[in-house]
Amino acid sequence: MKTVTLNNGITMPQLGFGVWQVDESEAGPAVEKALEVGYRSIDTAAIYKNERGVGQALKNTHIPREELFITTKVWNGDQGFDETLRAFDASLEKLGLDYLDLYLIHWPTPEYDTYIETYKALEKLYHDGRVRAIGVCNFDSVHVERILEECEVTPALNQVECHPYLAQHELKEFCKTSDIYVEAWSPLMQGGDVLEHHVIQSLARKHSKTPAQVILRWHLQRDTIAIPKSVTPARIEENFNVFDFELTTQDMQKIDSIDRNERQGPHPSEMNAR
Question: What's the predicted TM-score (pTM) here?
């Protein structure tokens, strides 16, 4: 497993396991399989309603806590300083943990303009030693700029939708100059038609790998953190086996060229659901 070093010196696995849209009953077995395969970074969120399932898997594992990297997120309806502190306690209890490795604001919800005070609550949790790193999720550069201007702690990462059809070139460059890692949710476009694109298919044949493995390798070589999701044991293993080959510069350029700026999820400036 390759790791990255966040801006506060904390190391994090570059390939993690996501549980978005995984039912509570399936989350435990899926995470247990992921840990068995070799994943050490698990990404969940309060709104996923599966933190207890993830927590059960963590309780069942014999892997030392210090070898795990656990992320969750505060939901939009729990934003605000005091509300965020309460939401953090609730997530920690469901996960059965004493501390988190990474805590994120799930969306900026600009209509309500509470993400600054929410982030200041994250800063308190960070300074109190209850979380090892803090960051944001689904933030555009304009939202990140406000954090940098009005808060003290630079976000460790920004988790956003990112895949070959939404390569996020400009946002990645902005985050890089601000020493903020980009983490890709939906790195495989939820198994969408990008897997059938002729460029991806041809590279899969070239490297004797699956289309999903080619795309995950593209993410890793772009210095992006990726968190693919699956509840299928064979797919969980497949998505992890991406460290035994390398794409060439030309391969990378071919994948870069199929960017369509095409989202599956909402635009950060327009997502205000609570």
Answer: 0.97
